[in-house]
Structure formats: C-alpha cells, structure tokens
C-alpha cells in the first residue's frame, strides 16, 4: 500500500523543507563572506610584508652607515653610545652620527643648499606665487587625464576575452572541486627595539646641543627646502622619484630629520610624505613589472618548482594591483591636491601595463604544462591539465582577456585536453 501522510505530517514536512532551504541559504552567504574575508586577510598580509621589506631595507642601510662612522671615528668616541634611532617610520629614518661628529657639527657653518634637479615637466612657481599660496589655497582645477600611450593602446586593443578559457576551466573544475592552490606568505620576523636606549641617547647633552645647533645654523637651508617642497609641482611621476631622492639626500645632512624639522611648523610634512609615498609606490610597481616582463623559464629547473615560481609572481602582481586599486580613489585626490602625478595608478597607466605583463606568465605556464603533458603518460595527466587551465583562467580574468600569442598557447593546451578525452573514450 502506498505510504499516506495526514495533513499535520505534510505541514511539518513543508516546514522542515523551508527551514532547510533557509539554512542552506544562510550557509551559502556565510561561505561567501568567509571567502571575502580570506582574500582581505591575504591582501593585508601582503601589504604588511611589503612594508616590513621596506623597513628592513632602510635599516640595513642605516647599520651600514653606522659601521662606517665607527671605523672613521677616533678612539675617544668609544665612550659614547652609537646607535641609530630605530623607532621612526621607514621613509623618515636616517642614521645618527657619533656624538663626536655631533660635537664637530655644532661648530660648522650653515649648509649651502644644493638646488633640486629640474626637468621639462617640473613646474616651480616664483617666490611671489609661493608667498601668495601660503595665504590663499590654490584653486586650480584638476588637469584632465593624459591621452592613452600608444604602446599601451596597442596592448589594450590586442587583448580580448576568450570564452573558451572560461568554458574549459568550468568543465574541469566540475570534475575536481577539491584542488586548491595555496600560497603561504613568507613571514618576516618582528624585531624588538629597546626604548630605554633611544631615550638615553636623546637625553645626552651632546646630542641635544647638536639638534639645537642645526635648528639655529641650518635655518636658511631648511627654509630653502620648505620653499622647494611647497612649490614643487610635477607632470611626470619619474620626476617625483628624482626629487624625492634629492630631498632625502639633503635632509640626511641633519643630525635628526624629525627632531630638527619639528622646530619648523611651516615644514609641509603632509606633502613631503605624499611625495615619498608616490615615489616609493611607483618604484616598487615599476620594478615588479620589469621582473615579470623579463621572466624566463629555466629548463634545468623542475616542473613543480617552475610552476610555483610563476604562481608566486602572479600572486605578487595581483596583490600589488589590488592594493593600488583599493586606495586609488582617495590617494589620487590627495595627489591632485599636492600637484603630484596620479594617472599612473589608472588602468591606462602603469596598472594596465602590469595586467598586460601577466600574459607572459600565462603563456609560459601553459607551454610548460603542455610540454609536461606530452612527456607524461601517468595518471597525473588530469591534475596537470587542471593546473594549467586554472592558471590560464586566473590570468584571463585578471588581465581582462588574452592577446593573440596567449590565445595560441591556450589552443595548444586545449588540443591536448581534447586528445586526452578522446583517448579515454
């Protein structure tokens, strides 16, 4: 006899179905939120690693200069404690000289300012305009974005969406949904510094006297730097790099940049920090683009090691681009206010070049995978194929498509996939 339910049981079954559907819906939303949080954590870890790398680089330079000053000092200098101030931000850290050198600096003459490097794209208003700008804020409208570079324009036109990449990726991931690429960000050890040692140095009369000497005798020199920073305006981000390098070199002649400049309330700290931030960010992205563009496959390197190297480079690309795009709106507004070039942060600038350069990684990855599949007859063929297609799909979504050369590499990989499927049948 067929199983029959009374009305109360049917109502209970219906209610349980609704509760199950609601629970599944909540579970799906929580999984999505969890995935977004994981991505955000990965981006933040990458940003922390980058900042720590900058910090370590500056500190290594600082210690090198310190050892040089120790070698050149007299035997009497051993009575003084010689350590640099380690609690400053990476961009504002400069090595402190020995106290014997500070005593000599106390009697020195005021530093003759060296004019900053000039270029055609550097715009510096007259002293009259500078004084007027101190009273009245500039009301110059933001310049329009520059025209798309011809080189990048050709690249963007050559990149197009390839639906076959998405189709092949989805067909393979439906068969194997348990495989995930995991990358571990290298941990940078946290260095602990003793505040008592720094406080002891600052309380020494020789050090304090040297700071006072710089404030008094270098006043004209510092006022010159203030005028240069306030009036600095650029059209090309590469000129900002040159200017920041010059500014850091000039400020390094002070006993302690931060301790001296805090006695000059007119020092444009926000603009100087923005100039340094723009120069360092552009330099890092430019170095990364050069590293990707010059990537070469090493035939003597193992297959797995080669793939991990390309995946790690793609991870750095995506993290750097995502970090820049996330802060682009607020940062570009701040740069415009300080007359610092910001167009390099757009997809028509350096960011677009970084995305296009990732196609080189996709081509090398697919070629390397295809070569391995052709020489590998083991049961790992499906896994290798999935790795190649997964990476191709990842770069395809990141760069916004493939160019003709990358499409050819994908077609070769797709033919191998089809032959593998026919062989199984």
From TrEMBL:
Coiled coil residues, start to end: 13-54, 271-334
Top-level taxon in the UniProt lineage: Eukaryota
InterPro entries: CHUP1/IPGA1-like
Biased composition (Pro residues): 140-149
Keywords noted in UniProt: Coiled coil
One annotated Gene Ontology cellular component of this protein: cortical microtubule
Single GO BP term: protein localization to cortical microtubule cytoskeleton
Region (Disordered): 104-151
Name of the protein: Protein CHUP1, chloroplastic isoform X2
Source species of the chain: Herrania umbratica
Gene: LOC110412561
């Amino acid at each position: 006899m067929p199983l029959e339910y009374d009305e109360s049981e049917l109502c209970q079954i219906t209610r349980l179905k609704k509760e199950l559907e609601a629970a599944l819906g909540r579970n799906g939303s929580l999984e999505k939120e969890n995935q977004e949080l994981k991505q955000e954590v990965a981006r933040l870890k990458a940003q922390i690693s980058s900042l720590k790398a900058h910090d370590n680089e500056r500190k290594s330079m600082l210690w090198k200069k310190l050892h040089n000053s120790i070698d050149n000092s007299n035997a009497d200098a051993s009575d003084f404690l010689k350590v640099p101030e380690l609690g400053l931000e990476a961009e504002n850290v400069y090595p402190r000289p020995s106290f014997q050198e500070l005593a000599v600096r106390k009697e020195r003459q005021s530093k003759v300012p060296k004019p900053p490097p000039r270029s055609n794209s550097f715009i510096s208003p007259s002293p009259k305009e500078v004084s007027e700008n101190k009273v009245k804020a500039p009301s110059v409208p933001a310049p329009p974005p520059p025209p798309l570079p011809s080189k990048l324009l050709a690249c963007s036109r050559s990149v197009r969406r390839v639906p076959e990449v998405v189709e092949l990726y989805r067909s393979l991931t439906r068969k194997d949904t348990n495989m995930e690429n995991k990358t571990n960000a290298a941990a940078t050890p946290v260095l602990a510094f003793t505040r008592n040692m720094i406080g002891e140095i600052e309380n020494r009369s020789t050090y304090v006297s040297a700071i006072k000497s710089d404030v008094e005798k270098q006043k004209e020199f510092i006022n010159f730097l203030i005028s240069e920073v306030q009036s600095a305006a650029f059209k090309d981000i590469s000129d900002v790099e040159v200017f920041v390098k010059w500014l850091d070199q000039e400020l390094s002649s002070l006993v302690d940049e931060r301790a001296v400049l805090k006695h000059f309330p007119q020092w444009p700290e926000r603009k100087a920090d923005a100039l340094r931030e723009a120069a360092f960010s552009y330099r890092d992205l430019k170095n990364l683009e050069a590293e990707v563009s010059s990537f070469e496959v090493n035939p003597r390197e193992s297959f797995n090691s080669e793939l991990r190297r390309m995946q790690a480079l793609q991870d750095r690309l995506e993290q750097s681009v995502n970090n820049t795009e996330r802060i682009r709106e607020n940062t570009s507004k701040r740069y415009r206010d300080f007359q610092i070039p910001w167009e390099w942060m757009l997809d028509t600038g350096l960011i677009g070049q970084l995305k296009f350069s990732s196609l080189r990684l996709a081509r090398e990855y697919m070629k390397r995978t295809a070569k391995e599949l052709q020489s590998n007859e083991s049961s790992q063929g499906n896994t290798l194929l999935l790795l190649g297609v997964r990476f191709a799909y990842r770069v395809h979504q990141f760069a916004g498509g493939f160019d003709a050369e990358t499409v050819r590499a994908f077609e070769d990989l797709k033919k191998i996939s089809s032959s593998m499927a026919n062989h199984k049948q």
